[in-house]
Amino acid sequence: MTMFIVTVPKIFLPWFHHEQMRNIIQMIIDDWSNLSETKSRKIMGRYAFWGRLAYIIQISAVFIIVLELTVTRHPSFMVESSENGSLSVRDIVLGPSCWITPSMSTPMYLMYYYIVLSGLCGAALIYAGFDAFMFSTALHICGQFEILNSSIERMTDKDDYGILKHRIKEYSQRHAKLLALSNQLNDIVSLIILLELLSNGFLICISGISLLTNFKNGNLDTDDFNVGVRVYVCYMALFMYSFVGEKLSIQAEKSQIAIYNRPWYNMSATIAKDMLFIIMPAIVYPGFDAFMFSIVLHICGQFEILNSSTENITDEDGYWEQRYKIKEYSQRHAKLLALSTQLDEIINVIILFTLLSNGFSICIAAISLLTGIKNGNLDNENFNVGIRICVCYVVLFMYSFVGEKLSIQAAKSQIAIYKVPWYNMPTTIAKDIQFIIMRSNSACNLTACGIMTMNYEAFKYTTRVMFSCFSVLQLALA
User: Fold this and answer.
1) Alpha-carbon distance 377 to 371, whole Å?
2) Percent of the chain scored above 90 by pLDDT?
3) Cβ 424 vs Cβ 315: under 8 Å
């Protein structure tokens, strides 16, 4: 019955997403039609072999289930006698025999039996066939990612600008198409995967209980063999989706490494920027905290580069050259300060909620962990709790660290510009430097919604508050 429930969406969802299905199938046909290189053929052949192998395994297991049901529950006309009379009992492929009423004529019974058998065969083929088809399709996309990543090896810094531009264009177009097809495939199978997880997980649990009960009571028969094969089919379907999902994710992420391994540092700035745009979409699952951490560190690096650029401002330069360098410095300094302010406006509320939620989570998790240690009930769940505490604490430290780093680098601008020999420069240049120093007096910080400045002091204060709350909660729950 579970097979019929899951088979229905496997029929209607591809029909509902028929445009995506058409695009995917057309892409597979085009890829095999336009195949010319031996290396690409080997890669595609390897992934196609895995897809065929999965199809054979799934179909064989389903065929065994249907064959066992057909052999053990073939049409029969048994008559059970009792004191009150006789009763005819007729088998059906699915369901109990009582579903067939004694008054049903033999032609009607046979028609009903073969209709159910045909439906079972069709559902079994669709159930296993759809999984195998999606498995093969996802593997095909994995193969295309691998071929695409290997094709970038032909790009070298010895090629001229036109050839590099053409190859970057071809790579980016193919990469964008594969990412789009991966998303279309996910749109088709996401709901089906959810139903598979729920139904197959439930079926595996029920079948496992049935097998263990019969094994314990010594009542093993052919039905138990069928149940065992059913568990295998359900488990295999779950493994197939997990395996191909992992494989697709890995191959897609390898695009980032493949393009980064090219000698972009020896290429023109426009080519390097194009390669950067390719790398950015290849990062499929960037964490928000890690992303913001990287952004703040990038601004810190720009402040450090800006501060080191003051070494080029000397009293030996001419007036207009000094004027130009001071102008460049002040414009860049103002831009970095503005970016820091904008970044703080974006994440200050998030930092506040992170402080509150992570602090509360750490306190509750620590109480749970200590209670488990006290009662001697340590298990995998307690290990999970310990990891959770570490993750929450590391996030708090990350924001404190980058806040401290940003504040220090911004403050160094004042010292860096002050070291310029302004006392040997014209009065107008010295006044410009004075304005920059005055502007550097403004604090450049990350804040928790303006309530707390994120730095090492804030981290120590947050830790003290968490320990205080932990002590209060421990006393309240004791």
Assistant:
1) 8
2) 0
3) yes
pLDDT in tens, 393-418: 888 888 888 888 888 888 888 777 77
Report phi then psi at 87, rounded to 5.
-135, 130
The continuous run of DSSP H or E covering 89 comes out as: strand 85-89
Name the burial class of residue 431, with classes exposed (0-12), middle (13-18) and buried (19+) by CB atoms within 10 angstroms of its CB: exposed
Instruction: Using the structure block, give the residue that is written with the tokens 């080997």.
Output: 42
191, HSE (Cβ side, Cα atoms, 13 Å): 14
Residue type, 453: T
Which tens digits make up the pLDDT trace of 311-349? 777 777 788 887 888 888 888 888 888 888 888 888 888
Gap between the Cα atoms of 432 and 324, Å rounded:
11
DSSP code at position 419: T
Q: What is the pLDDT of residue 380?
A: 62
Q: How many CB atoms neighbour CB 49 within 10 A?
A: 11
- Written in H, E and C, the secondary structure of 388-406 is HHHHHHHHHHHHHHHHHHH
Pull the structure tokens for residue 410. 């911004």
> What one-character-per-residue DSSP string does 336-372 give?
HHHHHHHHHHHHHHHHHHHHHHHHHHHHHHHHHHHHH
- CA proximity to 234, closest of 257, 201, 278: 201
Phi, psi of 15, deg, nearest 5: -65, -40
Q: For residues 371-385, b (16+ Cβ closer than 10 Å) or e, as one string?
A: ebeeeeeeeeebeeb
Note the pLDDT tens digit of each residue in 237-293.
Answer: 778 778 888 888 778 777 777 777 777 777 777 777 777 666 655 554 334 566 677
Q: Average pLDDT over the chain, rounded to whole?
A: 76
The 8-class DSSP code of residue 442 comes to: S
Tell me which long-range contacts 398-402 makes (C-beta under 8 A, separation of at least 24). Answer: 398/289, 398/293, 399/289, 399/293, 399/351, 399/354, 399/446, 399/454, 400/454, 400/455, 400/456, 400/458, 400/459, 400/462, 401/456, 401/459, 402/292, 402/293, 402/296, 402/297, 402/300, 402/446, 402/454
| Count of helices and strands (H, E) across the chain | 12, 2
Structure tokens at 405: 């780093």
Neighbouring CB atoms inside 10 A of 194's CB total: 11
Q: Which long-range contacts link 260-268 to residues 24+ away (Cβ below 8 Å)? A: 262/152, 262/155, 262/156, 263/156, 263/157, 266/157, 267/157, 267/164, 268/161, 268/164
Whether pLDDT at 478 is above 70 = no
